[in-house]
Amino acid sequence: MGKVRFVDLEINFADRELAMRVIEDWAERGTFPVQVVYGPEGCGKTAWLRESIELFRGRGGFDVIYVNPIDGFIRAELGGIADLRSRILSIAKDALTQEAWGGRVVWVIINIAREAIEARVSRLAIIVDDAFQVIGVDKAALYVKGLLGILEHPPAEYERVVTVVATSEGMSLREVGRHNWAEFKPMWNMSKEGFRQLYDQIPGSKPSLEETWRLTGGNPRMLEILYKARWNVDRVVEQLILEKAITKEFTTRWRRDLEATLNDPDHLWIEGGPGGELANELVERNLIVYGIPSRSPDLWIDQPPPERDSELGIGRYVAWQTPLHREAVKRVLRAT
Ligand SMILES: Nc1ncnc2c1ncn2[C@@H]1O[C@H](COP(=O)(O)OP(=O)(O)OP(=O)(O)O)[C@@H](O)[C@H]1O
Ligand SMILES: [Mg+2]
To answer: Closest ligand 1 atom to the C-alpha of 223?
Structure first.
């Protein structure tokens, strides 16, 4: 089990057993087409994918290319090919100095993956984390097509290739979804039991497990932010309001529908329809997840959210990313 950075702590990677089983399955069978993993901001996609690197390498016998263009992190485990390894290292160095590095590097990775296959890497995992934020909505689909090209038109024979893209960026998902180039795999915040394993590792005095669950809905990033703010909920909500630009102008414009959505997020599905303007605004700000599939466990990376949970703001088709996201909107709305 790996270690995860949690503000000033180093903690154990908690739970996500089902999600690790998905990795095992991918390692055994490869993936087709490209797997696009999406879920609320901070639900734990990156922590899980970084944890998966060792599994791919160890038991899976894979070479691995992992890149996160947002935080400028590349990891290349290309055992046999010194040349590609050193090229990746030099690209990684550029991250520190070059603007727009992220936008370029994702395209470079496609070439490097092709070269690796050409150089007879037979098991290769290509993981592009936080992929679409830097690429732009319009190019997200093209990028996925580029990754699919590695699988469909490889430069040499390969045994197994896994391509995974992770994002919390809802708008580009729609763009990618219009084609059949990817399989969409939703991931949700942590299950209550998994969340407890994380909560238990936080030292010092803290609110009860129930209280933190009610606030975060199991979202580990929100727990991290609360911990960092010394459990000052007001401060965290304030921070969210600013970050998400939840202005009075915005809440006043949508007052009636927002009230209904606070009450039941499915209001947007039933009344708003796909392409509904308010739904779009809330997806763009990463406040809601829109169009949640059935809770059939095989569709999900890990445990699905409940079918409905009005306390946590989860509806059948639409959900607030966390209760704190909902609270931020509520606070601005009620103050006007
Ligand atoms: N399984 C886990 N065990 C322990 N800590 C975790 C786990 N998952 C996530 N975390 C913690 O929660 C934080 C947020 O998780 P992470 O960055 O993986 O989310 P994300 O879904 O990738 O977010 P984003 O949507 O912003 O990319 C991490 O910094 C880590 O501290
Ligand atoms: Mg991430």
So the answer is: 12
